Amino acid sequence: MTVSEKSPQLWTNARLFTGADSGITAGEILIRDGQIAAVGTGLDAPPEAAHIDCGGRLVTPALIDCHTHLVYGGNRAREFQMRLEGASYAEIAAAGGGIVSTMRATREASVHALVEQALPRLDSLLSEGVGTVEIKSGYGLSVESEIRMLRAARKLATLRPVRIRTTWLAAHALPPEFKDDRAGYIERVVLAGMEVAHAEGLVDAVDGFCEHLAFTPAEIDRVFAKAHDLGLPVKLHAEQLSWQGGAALTARHGGLSADHLEYMTEDDARAMAAAGTVAVLLPGAFYMLRETKVPPVQALREAGCDIAVSTDANPGTSPMTSLLLAMNMAAVLFGLTVDECLKGTTANAAKALGLGAETGRIAPGLAADLAIWNAESPAELVNPMGFNPLHARYFKGQKV
Ligand code: DI6
Ligand code: FE
Fold first, then answer.
1. CB-side exposure of 78: number of CA atoms within 13 Å?
2. Which residues, in sequence order, are CB contacts of 15 under 8 Å at separation 6+?
3. Rounded to whole angstroms, how far apart are CA atoms 210 and 141?
4. Cβ(220)–Cβ(201) under 8 Å?
5. Which residues of the chain fall below pLDDT 50?
6. Atom 11 (ligand 1): residue with closest C-alpha?
7. Which one-letter DSSP state was computed for residue 294?
8. What sign results for the dihedral spanned by CA atoms 6, 10, 14, 15?
């Protein structure tokens, strides 16, 4: 049976992980106009409603990857090989590698080429039931090429059934031409470019990399102040390799999320919880860098901080395009529970993007972005490594 976008649907015989509560419940979903109209049992459906029998399968909100660098040029496989053969990160950087090598390949690529290179990565995410993806700039490091990255990100949303949120991350690294002029880079590229990109409707949020090898809290503070002037929400790569105070800074600015967080403190967790700033954990980067400092998950729980999980898909430190694998790694490496992993890729990931009222839960009024799994319980999604149990994905009520 074909189900048109407008015709109502009654899904029956489902095991629901709603994202709103823990665990699963047996239930039904009524969908109208691409939105969830009702959730429960014994729902009243209009006579014209299409009936979809879920066959006792697990149904979750479509997954949300809330931190990715999916758009970039080239790859860093050769550098990976060099590191395996004993080269240090510094040697590779000195030989023109690292973020700067991706910068060069990204600057050389047209919007079309960036889209073509990103599509297979996007398709990898979507094939696992993802319905919303955040994509950052940050590999162009000039106004023009950062904007090109975000145009490519927006273009992806016209080519696939997916919701894309774009993030201005010009404060990712200092390009070589500004090596001796940090303030000039912030002023003329990060801040000025933010304004231009925002005027073109390309920016949903503003991010930065706060780290000894990237930008200081004082520099990020300026970036955030500009974001506020433009009415844009902020988020930050914080305490990934060392403690810098970025998480607390983000909380002070009422940020959507602070991400990575291996080196965060209990005070940071309390500040983030009080500000409603989501803690986004990125086990792919932890794994690739062979990091040993685990983010303080118990402190986040005790503080009442919402936790999300994401791929951090990027060519250098997390060349991973599987959100299911990210969940498995968050469980095994960081000690998250199955429930935390699922909430972290649905309800809390939506909150990290400011989309909590639009998607990420199975609740009335939200988009009917849903995933049906060949599974009976959420643990069956988190446990396997490299296995995809997706049965069907729906985007705004349409099977895709
Ligand atoms: N944190 C990271 O680990 C990456 N960016 C960031 O903000 C590094 C990205 C790269 O090496 O290309
Ligand atoms: Fe990142």
1. 10
2. 24, 25, 26, 54, 56, 57, 58, 59, 376, 377
3. 16
4. no
5. 1-3
6. 316
7. P
8. positive
Element (H, E) at 372: strand 370-373
Specify the pTM.
Answer: 0.97
Residue ranges of the alpha helices (H) in 75-110?
77-84, 89-94, 99-108
How far apart (Å, rounded) are the C-alpha atoms in residues 279 and 269? Answer: 8
How far apart CA 33 and CA 4 sit, in angstroms, is 9
- Among protein residues, the one with the nearest Cα to ligand 1's atom 12 is 316
**Per-residue CA distances from 371 to 9, 78, 378 (Å):** 15, 36, 12
Ligand 1 centre from 191 Cα, in Å? 21
Contacts 24+ apart (CB under 8 A), 296-302: 296/261, 296/264, 296/265, 296/266, 296/269, 297/334, 297/335, 297/336, 299/264, 299/265, 299/266, 299/269, 300/269, 300/272, 300/273, 302/266, 302/269
- SS3 of 345, please? coil
Q: Beta strand 398-399 with 390-395: parallel, antiparallel or unpaired?
A: antiparallel
> Which bound ligand lies closest to the C-alpha atom of 313?
2
Residue-wise pLDDT tens digits, 295-334: 999 999 999 999 999 999 999 999 999 999 999 999 999 9
Pull the structure tokens for residue 249.
């800074």
Nearest ligand to the C-alpha atom of residue 285: 1
